[in-house]
Structures are given as structure tokens and as C-alpha cells.
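User: Need the bound-state model for NAI:
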Amino acid sequence: MEYSDIMYEITLIPGDGIGPEVMEAALHILKASDLEFKFQEAQAGNACYQLTGTTLPDETIEMARNSDATLFGAVTTVPGQKSAIITLRRELDLYANLRPVKSYPGVKSIYPDLDLLIVRENSEGLYSGVEQETEEGATALRVVTRKASERISQVAFKEALKRGKTKVTAVHKANVLKKTDGVFKNAFWKVAKEYMDMDDYPNFEVDEVYVDAAAMFLITNPYRFQVLVTTNLFGDILSDEGAGLVGGLGMAPSANIGDVNGLFEPVHGSAPDIAGNGVANPTAMILSASAMLHFLGESEEALKIEQALMNVLKEGVFTTPDLGGKFTTMEMAQAVRENFKKS
Ligand code: NAI
Ligand code: MG
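Assistant: Bound-state model below.
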């Protein structure tokens, strides 16, 4: 049969501020690929709230649940209303947050040739959402289960193998958080043993580092890490630190992955300070779209997009002001698209 191409159904949640701007840029490139997509747009965030009274309509959740993957731009937080992204992560059970920290030639970064991956547990930890007011102030519940700790450790090792990495480091604070991080640490080593005993990978290296030391090593010697796996809050903080190492928020993509669904988003927010000017750096969103293609099994196309972007960054001409260039979001996207089409 001639028409055997897969048609991927993708839910787009552009959101607010620069969300729709970087989304348009990423779509401009995706639409130049040979793959077949059916895009459907869904609402979330502040503009959605003004219109519908909710930051995340049920319809959006169902569209994301039923599509092959979701691209999320960024939303402006509405005080007192539920967080669209945290609710989506929970509703779709997107328990793994993958945040690559990679330096690109042509982009000012503290370390060259850095390429590591932070795997953050996305479903529990200190972000369980169970907070309570007490007489003295308030408390938050830190939930760590064996199940979630084992599955996130599995993700870390699988991603390591997929990406040709030979070392996985667990990051925790089990010397102080003896019970909760005790569970995490034991689950990690249980999974690690499976991989360390594999005949095919005799040189697989596994270690553990306390989170405070990990924060320091990321600055002093990030090359000691290849894949880091950690609980929710630690992962949130360390991955922003990682973004700072390689050129800032405009450069940092992320993937939220579960057993069924995947949602891909830049780490940055809606950037109201630059929104509407058409100057947002589309890199994080384009790399998130590339990560989505990896998730869909279209790694060849994903790598081509990343390479096209790398060429544009390295050339350093058609870039946005935060990268030292004079061009708009869409002009940079157009340069990436042309590079991609040549490949
Ligand atoms: P932000 O990430 O939106 O912006 C922080 C700084 O980085 C700003 O100076 C901004 O101009 C710059 N920046 C961010 N992305 C950029 C890009 N692609 N190109 C060039 N510069 C870029 O964080 P902020 O200002 O703390 O939050 C703004 C709004 O976004 C808030 O309502 C916040 O709650 C929300 N937010 C949403 C997130 C999401 O949708 N996942 C994540 C983080 C914040
Ligand atoms: Mg964060």
C-alpha cells in the first residue's frame, strides 16, 4: 500500500504570553517534515481562564489523553487557580520529567561540550500537594513510594542506554531524610543491580551523591555526571541550575513522560516582559518538539531538526536578542526550517 504513513495526532496547548509565539515557531519546522501530523489546538492558562472560568478545561485533558503526544507552550499562572501543567502531569500520569542539559556551539555557556540528562520524579515527593496549616505555621507532606522510585530509576537507566550514556547517578539526601530518601535510595539500587549485572554493559557505572554536593558539582565539575535521577523538588532546582550552565531558560527543553502519554514543553514560562514583541528564543520549544519526535519513534527526523537548529546557533546570525542576534522568533524559525529542508 502506498499510503502507509502513520498520521500522528498532536494536541497543541500554546497557552499565554510567548507560549503561542514559540509554538508557532516549532510548528513552522514540524510542518516542513515528511511526517504526517494532525494538529488539534486546546486551551489552558490565563487567557483560557478569562474566557471559560477554568485554567484547564476537561476537554483539554481529554484531548491530550487521546492524542499521540502533546506540545505545551507556556502559561501565565492565575493566582488561586489550579496549575494547568501540574494538573496535566497528574491527570495523564506523566511521572518522568526529562531535562537535558546540553551546550550548543555558538551559544554562550559556562561549560562547552556538556551533555547530561536530569531525570526528575514528577508525581510525588514534596510536590504531593498535601500542605496543612498548623498553629505555628504550616507543614508539607513529602511522599516517596517504592513504586514511583523504582519506575523513575527504570526510566533513568533506559534513557541512559538509549542515549549511549554509561553512568547513572542517584541524587538524594538520605543522610537527613532517612525514611523518605531511604526508600528512594533502596529502590534506585535495586533497579541499578539489574543493569550493572547485564553482560552487554560491563562498564556501566552507578553512584549516588547528596543533593547539596550535586548542586556544587554541577558548577565545579558537571562532567562527572551523565544521567542524574532524583526526586521532584531536587530535580526541579537542579534542572534550572543546569539550564543556567548552558545559556539560560530559552535553551532548556523538557519531556513529561508516562507509560501511555507524553507532553513536551520548554522549561521557561510565559515571559510577560518580552511577550508580544516576537523576540522569544524558540530553541527550547523546538528542542521539545524534537524530543516529541523521539518519543513517537521518529528519531531520524528528531535528530535532523536538532542538527538544523545547531547549524543556525553555530552560525550565530539568525538568532534572537537573548542569543546576541537581531532577529525575531519567526525569522530564526525560518532559518532552522530552511536548514532542515536541506537535510
Ligand atoms: P519566565 O520563564 O517566563 O521568564 C524568566 C525570564 O527569562 C524573563 O526575563 C524572560 O523574558 C526570560 N525568558 C524566558 N523564556 C525566554 C525565551 N524563550 N526567550 C528569551 N527570554 C526568555 O519566568 P517568570 O517570569 O518567572 O514567569 C512568568 C509567568 O510564567 C508566571 O506567570 C509564571 O508562573 C509562569 N510560568 C509558567 C511555566 C509553564 O508554563 N510551564 C513555567 C514557569 C513559569
Ligand atoms: Mg522549575
